[in-house]
């Protein structure tokens, strides 16, 4: 039974977070919402932050980095409604998808770093 997240799995989580962060960062140009101020700036800032935190976690893992990415991921999910760009479909979906991926990976990394066993049932 897997009890803790090995460093190889944690590295894979961080690499996926780097790709997701970069994806969010380039999404305003890729999906054509760079003119939407709140959506574009949020994508650039949150995408860059996710990427930088994941890169830092590759070099020295600290649980605080995962908590930061969890918060950033959750922010990315709710930002379209709080910042008022939910009507910009491409921006909304880019934020929601990346946010869910980043938040799920960060939550999984936090969960497994505390040696919580998987269900034995």
Automatic annotation (TrEMBL):
It comes from the Bacteria. Residues 14-107 form the SPW repeat-containing integral membrane domain. InterPro entries: SPW. Pfam families: SPW. The chain crosses the membrane at residues 12-35, 41-62, 69-87, 93-112. Keywords: Membrane, Transmembrane, Transmembrane helix. This is SPW repeat-containing integral membrane domain-containing protein. It comes from Rhizobium aethiopicum.
């Amino acid at each position: 039974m897997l009890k803790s997240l090995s460093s190889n799995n944690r590295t894979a989580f961080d690499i996926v977070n780097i790709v997701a962060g970069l994806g969010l960062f380039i999404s305003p140009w890729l999906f054509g919402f760079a003119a939407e101020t709140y959506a574009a700036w949020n994508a650039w800032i949150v995408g860059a932050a996710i990427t930088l935190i994941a890169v830092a976690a590759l070099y020295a893992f600290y649980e605080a980095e995962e908590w930061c990415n969890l918060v950033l991921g959750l922010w990315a999910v709710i930002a379209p409604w709080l910042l008022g760009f939910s009507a910009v479909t491409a921006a909304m979906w880019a934020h929601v998808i990346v946010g869910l991926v980043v938040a799920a990976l960060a939550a999984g990394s936090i969960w497994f770093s505390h040696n919580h066993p998987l269900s034995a049932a």
